Amino acid sequence: MRVGVTYAARLVLLGGATVLAFFSGGYFDQPRAWAGLVAWVLVAVAVAFDGPALPRTRSAWLALGGLALFGAWTLLSITWAPIAGNAYHAGQLVMLYVGVLLAAMLLLRTKAAQRLVEPALATGALVVTGYGIAERLLPGVLQFARSVSAQGRLEQPLTYWNAMGELAALGFVLCARIAGDGERPRGVRATAAAAGAPLGLGLYLSFSRGALFACAAGLVALIVAAPRREQLEGILVAVSAAVLSSIAAAPFKGVTSLAGSLGTRERQGAIVLALLTVIALAAAVTHRQLARRARTAPVRLPRHAAWVALIVICAGLAVAIVVGSKESANRPLSGGASRYATLQSNRYAYWRVAFHAFGDEPLHGVGAGGWSVWWLRYRPFNDFARDAHSLPLQTLAELGLVGVALLGAFFTGVGLAARNASRVAPTLAAGPIAGFVVYAAHAPLDWDWQMPAVTLVAIVLGGALLALGEISPRARAPAPGGAGGAP
After folding, report:
1. Are 487 and 187 in contact (CB under 8 A)?
2. d(CA 202, CA 443)
3. Are the beta carbons of 20 and 453 closer than 8 angstroms?
4. Which of 107, 326, 339, 465 has its CA 20 to 30 Å from the CA of residue 456?
5. For position 384, what pLDDT does the model report?
6. How many angstroms from the chain centroid is the CA of residue 410?
7. Is residue 233 predicted with pLDDT exceeding 80?
8. How far apart are CA 433 and CA 468, in angstroms?
């Protein structure tokens, strides 16, 4: 009974974000409240059936303590926030994340549980992305709600195109990791490579420049975390499938922007569906042929490759922000592929208002949810916005230096756990590290934090890295010979 209950709890933990995705990503109060209740029930189940052992590593205490105190500080800001209800709901959201992080740390303390993380989360991202693109491939069968602001970009079921792009990027990087993991069966690896086709198409159809950058950052991190020949081959096949799928869909406006009559969209959707199927099958066959050769070998990287990768990612982000801030804002921007040719965005105006709010209350901020009030006061153009589209800047504006320090403690704890895990269990750690980097690279560019269906994927990945410190060295060691030769 104990084993069955624990296994069921792990499945709920790993599948929760996918379920929440079909309730507008958990953005609204009721699904978010239910998710929080389930998260803390999982904690109770883990304590009751899997042992109440407290974390043993400093990184785990730093991450968990930082996030818990961040939640407490968010709730305390009710006392000075301009809208107390907004502050309460922001605190409720953080407590959901605390519950999921703790549940992941408790439920993922075995190698078998760790091996479930990547395929479960990648499958969830594939299901959500596949659901979103299904309307475009089968428009005569499926019709989803649309928003004018999306301009035809992929938005369902999360209802926000950039979040869909970020989730597709997370799933894509995890699939690339699975495809390059020599310890997994060849069939699983080939399937993961094939999944790069629909996930890559979903990323393209979101037309999210930030998600594309985050995906690239995750792949760079994956190469550093798993510097092996088979991993490079897995990335190459998955990326090739994604690029070919995007090229195949690009000429068909009925698929890329939902333009044209129903008959036109049906014809174009059928063509793209057929091409997508062929590309996915070709990716699977190609990867399986590469895997059969079993040419496993390490790839020699520079001694400080991790630091080089971090500097490259941060520099790329900084250059994009600086260059983009020079373009004029509040100018009509197409929802199609032309977005990839510009860095224009209203975000820079949002960020300037965030700095304005921080300047007014640098220590404790203006209160959780208060940025929207400052936006109404100081916005340079008539645009509705509730979030600053940047986790660090919104935290700086609403919760001040104290809030940024506490949030930083969480990310620092996960980062330290990732460093330690990459040394003692590199095979288990590579996927969670790369996936968490995808989220960390995108969070400064959008309001991922307010979209639980996206953030919970990163929280579970972070919890998996923290849990690796709780696994005994003997349990972390791979079985002799691995599973790379499995048919």
Report:
1. yes
2. 19
3. yes
4. 339
5. 85
6. 16
7. yes
8. 12
Closest by alpha carbon to 343, among 357, 356, 333, 354? 333
Cβ-proximal residues to 311 (8 Å cutoff; 6+ apart), any chain: none
Q: Rounded to the nearest 10 degrees, what angle do helices 347-360 and 305-324 cross at?
A: 100
Sequence-distant (6+) residues with CB within 8 A of 11 are 120
**Average pLDDT, integer, range 270-293:** 95
Amino acid identity, position 259: A
Nearest to 25 by CA among 393, 350, 449, 460: 449
DSSP code at position 52 = -
Tracing tokens 């009559």 back to the chain, one arrives at 261
Q: For residue 188, what are its two tokens?
A: 């699983």
For residue 57 the two structure tokens come to 């590593």
Q: Residue 304 corresponds to which tokens in the numbers above?
A: 């400080």
Neighbours of 354 (CB within 10 A): 27
Q: What is the DSSP letter of 390?
A: -
End-to-end CA distance of the chain: give it in Å, rounded.
33
Residue 294 amino acid letter: A
Q: What are the tens digits of pLDDT across the range 296-324?
A: 788 989 888 999 999 999 998 888 777 66
Q: Compute the chain's Rg from CA coordinates.
A: 22
Helices within 298-390 (DSSP H only): 305-324, 347-360, 371-378
The residue to which tokens 């709600």 are assigned: 145
Exposure of 12 by Cβ count < 10 A (0-12 exposed, 13-18 middle, 19+ buried)? middle
Instruction: Tally the residues of the chain.
Output: 487
User: How does pLDDT run across 97-132, given as a tens digit for each residue?
Assistant: 999 999 999 999 999 999 999 999 999 999 999 999
Q: Which long-range contacts (CB under 8 A, 24 or more apart) does 256-260 make?
A: 256/136, 256/152, 256/205, 256/336, 256/337, 257/151, 257/152, 257/153, 257/335, 257/336, 258/136, 258/139, 258/146, 258/152, 259/152
Before 298, cis peptide (omega within 30)? no
Site of tokens 């997508």: 276
What pTM value is reported for the model? Answer: 0.94
